[in-house]
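Students often ask why inverse folding is considered easier than folding. One informal answer: many sequences map to the same fold, so there is more than one right answer. In these notes we will look at a single instance of the problem. The structure comes first.
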């Protein structure tokens, strides 16, 4: 890949990982639209790791406190805190994707097509619109219950369908449960940490077993730029989401789906 393609793919990943528009779909579509060879799974993982580092750095204080308080409460029997409750909620929400995540590889191979991406983009975009416009109870993140975490986690499993969007479907679930847009987004971003980490670990093991040749320079550059773009996306999304709502992303998803159906059907 040339430098322009590397930076463009890093931009796509960095912006779309945390916006509710599906990063995996855009990474799959990019080489098709650009008319170039697919960048490969190893590069996709490198830019995902760049995004992962961005969310870890952005929420470093919260993640540190959450880890310490969760370990302190459940291992050392310390009194529970809002951070230990949040930590357990993240663990519970991660369990469904651990159980069903193995289906993702099969779906990526068998069903990863522009037409499926189009329908998923439209369908789950409209579901996000419904969740964002329904009356909410304005719940904040410190009010999350184990039941809420499990429901959000079960919805996250739907993200194994290309075009669904992991962040989009988890935000949709949280909005349906009555959380504010900021709280729904915040929880979705925190949930990305174990989810991306586990997905990356599985693929890295597959790459090691396959003994594939890697373009480490392209992977490093992609990870760096993905980190920068993802950090900016998180910052500005949280800053603007209560003001703009989800409508801009819903319109984008529906338009993207319609255009893909027009081109590929």
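Output (designed amino acids):
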């Amino acid at each position: 890949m040339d430098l322009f393609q590397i930076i463009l793919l890093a931009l796509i990943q960095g912006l779309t990982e945390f916006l509710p528009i599906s990063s995996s779909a855009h990474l799959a579509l990019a080489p098709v639209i650009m008319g170039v060879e697919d960048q490969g799974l190893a590069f996709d993982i490198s830019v995902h790791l760049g995004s992962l580092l961005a969310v870890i750095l952005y929420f470093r204080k919260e993640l540190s406190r959450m880890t310490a308080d969760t370990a302190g409460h459940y291992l050392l029997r310390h009194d529970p805190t809002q951070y230990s409750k949040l930590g357990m909620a993240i663990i519970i929400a991660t369990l469904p994707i651990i159980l069903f995540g193995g289906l993702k590889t099969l779906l990526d191979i068998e069903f990863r097509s522009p037409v499926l991406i189009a329908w998923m983009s439209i369908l789950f975009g409209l579901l996000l619109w419904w969740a964002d416009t329904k009356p909410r109870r304005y719940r904040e993140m410190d009010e999350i219950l184990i039941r809420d975490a499990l429901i959000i986690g079960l919805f996250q499993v739907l993200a194994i369908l290309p075009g669904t969007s992991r962040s989009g479907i988890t935000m949709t679930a949280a909005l349906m449960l009555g959380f504010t847009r900021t709280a729904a987004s915040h929880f979705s971003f925190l949930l990305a940490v174990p989810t991306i980490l586990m997905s990356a670990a599985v693929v890295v093991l597959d790459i090691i077993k396959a003994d594939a040749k890697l373009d480490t320079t392209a992977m490093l550059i992609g990870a760096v730029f993905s980190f920068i773009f993802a950090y900016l996306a998180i910052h500005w999304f949280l800053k603007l989401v209560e003001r703009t709502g989800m409508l801009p992303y819903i319109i984008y998803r529906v338009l993207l789906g319609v255009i893909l159906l027009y081109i590929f059907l």
